[in-house]
Amino acid sequence: MSWDRSIGRPEPVAALDRIRHVDDGEPLVSLLDAAPEIVIHRDSVIPYLRETVVRMLKDAQSRLPEGVRFGVTDAWRPLQRQVRIYERMTAWLKEAKPELPPHMVKRTVNRWVAPPNRKAPPGHCTGAAVDLVLLNAQGEVLDTTSPFDRLGGAPTFSYGLTPEARANRMMLYEAMMAAGFSNCRDEWWHYSYGDAGWAVRMGLDECIYDAIDLPMEEYAEKEEVWVRLFQSRPNPFLPSPD
Amino acid sequence: MRRLLVLLAVLCGLVGLAWPQAGAAPRTIQPGDKLRIVCEEEPSISKDYTVKEDGTITVTFLGTIRVQGQNAEQLGAFIAKKLEDDRIVRRATVRVTIIGEVSGRVSFGGAVRSAGDAPLTAGMRLADVLKLANPLPDADLTRVQLRSAEGTLNVIDFTKFDPQTNSANPVMRAGDTITIVLKVQGETITVLGGVVRPGVMEWKREMTVAGAVQQAGGLSPLARGSRVRLRRGTTERTIDLGNPTQASTLVQPGDQVLVDISEGRRYVRVGGGVQVPGLVEFTPGLTLMEAVQNRGGVVPKAQVNKVEIQTVDLERRTVDLGPILAGYAADITLQAGDVVTIPGGERRRSGGSLQQIGIAVIGILLFFLGG
Questions:
Q1: DSSP string covering B1-69
Q2: A239 interfaces chain B, CB cutoff of 8 Å
Q3: Quick check: B182 and A170 CB within 8 A?
Q4: B310 at the A interface (CB within 8 A)?
Q5: Can you give the pTM of this predicted structure?
Q6: How far apart are CA A209 and CA A211, in angstroms?
Q7: Domain boundaries B105-182, corresponding CATH code
Q8: What is the pLDDT of residues B314-354, one digit of tens each?
Q9: Does B148 touch chain A if contact means CB atoms closer than 8 Å?
Q10: What CATH fold (topology level) applies to the domain B265-349?
């Protein structure tokens, strides 16, 4: 039960696998149509989430101060994207820390990316999870991370954030929690409702959403953009060059 | 005599030990419990009741009565006596059974040492949950979120908790979620709009509107310093930063400073692959090509087929500038405040000059070799 917030604690994979799925087939809806007030912050985002999740996200945004809005940095993901992220993160970690034994590699990668080969589908593949930043009226990102960069300071309640970063981060957290989302304590940007991660965090033994698919033509273009962006990303396990 | 006293004391002790065991069986009634009350002589009070948060139920003829802390038998006797005393019936036989104890779970998380969930127990209150959650030293207990299973949100100032009256200490219900946020260090203000680093920032004593704007990195190029709105609660006043008296207005914790950026809407920003990225003054009818030409035209490596135009409402569209530049397609009219971004080929001043130096060096070498 105890949790060291400087390290954080993601939901254990075994606990996620124990959750029963009772998906009633609620559809994925496009944020572009259903929530045009929410900004899609990256070109690679496939802007689909479950209907209820979109409604809750709109509610959360209405709780933000005037002039601040959400920027979605990831929403629904095809399983294939999840596989690619997982494999790439594994390769990056092996590159950064070649001495790590295989089980530690797996454990470390699992901390950042939901493994795609387990019973419980990754939250993003169910359309229940969303990654967010805060934007000002001009679409610029509000600081929620200083003085950290990359994966440093990822746990929501990290020590050592600047007062501004902490206040902005809490602004995001409060609005999302008030709307009924749950937050992965290891990643300040990741919120979900109705997936296995949510169920574990809420102490429930069943969750609402199972993996769901979209027709490939809906997202093929976005996937290309994503592959390009993802390939150009620096290794997050290596120290920042600057 | 002394021996007798010792024996008496031992006996009393034994009785004392046995007493709690004898009394432990009947459970005391707690808020959230479901009670079934049956009165043979007065059927109108015979029904099921849920104990309210304040530990009471409302019974016909008797009004609101406090039931918390009594056991079922005591409550039955109490109601029977009251019915008789109030002469509702001459003789009352009342039977009370606890038919439903509270069940379900409460979950808690956020800025706590121990996030998770716990079974709901009778009479469990916020203070009990916070004890389990063990908030971090810098948790903000003035803004504890209590969200019910139905989705209603209650923000509680737990620093106002009084164990005597149980103020700010509501009874938990099944499915409640408690969320604790971190205290924002010190007191804060929010500076938004046309500043370099908008967001929440620490309030400092004697901080002025101008100081707050400075703290936020100063005015951004599009800001309108003459129209800064200072919001305090529901009131708002406009401040001109050019007016020293107005600019030195003191800000208070919780204030919102909004720097107007409407002036920015008289410009179009052109960024990315143009010779000189920057602002173009907007005149009605300004076109994409005019704006690009105004900033020196595109650089050689610019991806002119993926030019993005973002409006002030943050709507984005991608257009192909190639056919427009070549004269095959109609030019696009821009709106004030549009942001045009041309991907690729960002001009590298140093790279360009290095290239020129390189060509010069090769030229000199060739000259000497040739000679």
A1: -HHHHHHHHHHHHHHHHHHHHHHHSSPBP-TT-EEEEEESS-GGG-EEEE--TTSEEEETTTEEEE-TT
A2: no
A3: yes
A4: yes
A5: 0.60
A6: 7
A7: 3.10.560.10
A8: 778 899 998 888 888 888 889 887 889 998 765 444 344 44
A9: no
A10: Outer membrane lipoprotein wza fold like (3.10.560)
